[in-house]
Specification:
Elements lengths: L1 H24 L1 E2 L2 H6 L1 H4 L3 E9 L6 E3 L2 H5 L6 E4 L3 H5 L1 H4 L2 E10 L12 E12 L5 H7 L2
Parallel strand pairs: 1-2, 4-6
Antiparallel strand pairs: 2-3, 2-5, 3-4, 5-6
Length: 142
């Protein structure tokens, strides 16, 4: 009987941890989907990839480096920078990242130029270096 109770406890803990981790991860979504359907993701945790620029009054996750270079902030989301992002600025800035945070379509950042924001950033990791794109690294490793 004691073993049965222990097994039941382990199963319940596993389900609880799975539900919690799904909530922590957020919905894996493209920036295009966020911009096109802002109300669908309002206030929800999202996991999104893009080209990150970290600069004074310009912390923005762009759809691509081209959007940054040509001054198209509507193809971007304002980013509420975390302390970890500031610490890792040299690694993250001007590269493609995977960002996890809460989507807010109403906060459009400095001068309301962006199409929404990612707030309460939980993680920001390097996805692909601009000067060493992931596709080229993968091709070379074959």
């Amino acid at each position: 009987m004691k073993n049965l109770v222990m097994i039941a406890f382990v199963i319940v803990c596993a389900f609880a941890m799975t539900a919690h981790s799904q909530q922590e991860v957020g919905t894996n979504v493209s920036m295009i989907e966020l911009i096109a359907n802002p109300d669908r993701f309002n206030g929800k945790p999202v996991l999104v990839r893009g080209y990150l620029r970290l600069e004074h009054e310009g912390d923005v996750l762009y759809l691509s480096e081209t959007d940054f270079l040509h001054g198209i902030p509507k193809n971007g989301l304002w980013v509420e920078r975390s302390p970890e992002m500031t610490r890792d600025i040299e690694k993250l800035d001007s590269n493609y990242v995977l960002l996890l945070g809460i989507f807010n379509p109403r906060n459009k950042g400095h001068r309301s130029l962006a199409s929404g924001s990612i707030e309460k950033v939980r993680s920001c990791t390097l996805w692909s270096k601009t000067k060493e794109p992931i596709a080229l690294r993968l091709r070379e490793s074959k």
